[in-house]
Design brief:
By secondary structure, the protein is an alpha/beta fold. 33% of the residues lie in helices and 25% in strands. Strand 4, helix 5 and strand 5 form a beta-alpha-beta unit. The chain binds S-adenosylmethionine.
């Protein structure tokens, strides 16, 4: 899948436009049966080195952030937003609907960014999409006032990188808010803004509802 057109065709062939359970204001191209899509993408993964399809469902962390943004539009209105680890683009779309002055979806997976653009169009908003690993980048290069990171604390080594970088981004004056359904590697000492019970995809999560917190990243980790 070299071209954007090929990626868009693949996404459309394996998804339907469906309402996000906890954010009914937004519809996303969603896998109706995750397993065949996962298998299809893994076939491509072997052949083309693609990422697993995180973009095909709204994860609990993203749903919590999108809900929080739509219920607190003043948090993003008129601001420049980055949605880090955007996946489907759910949080980015919520920020655009809430009146952000610009929204950039960032992910390392080209399929995710194509999904972000298709989903943005389906919801009548515009986004920028950047395919890059920006972890470690100077905060000034993000062109952001606020950064959201939905459901990114599920693997040890990446989580450690994300935490160090996101705390440095906060020290540079950018507000950073993450949505987390109690994943294994969520940092300690984040400031809780809200919490929800989020309906989840039964094929991917152990429970039908996951307690998910909206957490603000502070400049320093707590002393242990
Ligand atoms: C579990 S998904 C969450 C997607 C979305 N935020 C949501 O909550 O629905 C995590 C996403 O982080 C992306 N990701 C992983 N490492 C990344 C990195 N270094 N930079 C940007 N995105 C990354 C993955 O490709 C994936 O799309």
């Amino acid at each position: 899948m070299e071209t954007a057109e090929e990626r868009a065709t693949f996404i459309r062939a394996h998804t339907v436009l469906a309402t996000v359970p906890f954010v009914p204001e937004i519809r996303l191209l969603t896998a109706t049966d995750v397993t065949p899509l996962w298998r299809a993408t893994h076939t491509f993964l072997g052949e083309h080195g693609l990422e697993v399809p995180f973009w095909c469902v709204p994860w609990a962390g993203g749903q919590a952030l999108a809900r929080w943004v739509l219920d607190h539009p003043e948090a993003v209105r008129g601001l420049r937003v980055v949605d880090f680890g955007a996946g489907s683009g759910l949080v980015a779309i919520a920020c655009a609907l809430a009146g952000a002055s610009s929204v950039r979806a960032v992910d390392i997976d080209p399929l995710a960014l194509e999904a972000c653009l298709l989903n943005a169009g389906a919801n009548g908003v515009a986004l920028d999409a950047t395919c890059a690993d920006v972890v470690g980048a100077e905060a000034s290069t993000l062109d952001a006032d606020i950064l959201f990171a939905g459901d990114v604390w599920y693997e040890r080594a990446p989580a450690a990188r994300f935490e160090a970088w996101l705390r440095s981004v906060v020290r540079s004056g950018v507000r950073v808010i993450t949505g987390d359904p109690c994943r294994a590697y969520v940092p300690d000492g984040l400031h809780e803004l809200d919490r929800y019970d989020i309906p989840t995809c039964a094929d991917l999560e152990a429970t039908a509802l996951r307690l998910t917190r909206v957490l603000e990243v502070l400049t320093r980790a707590p002393r242990s």
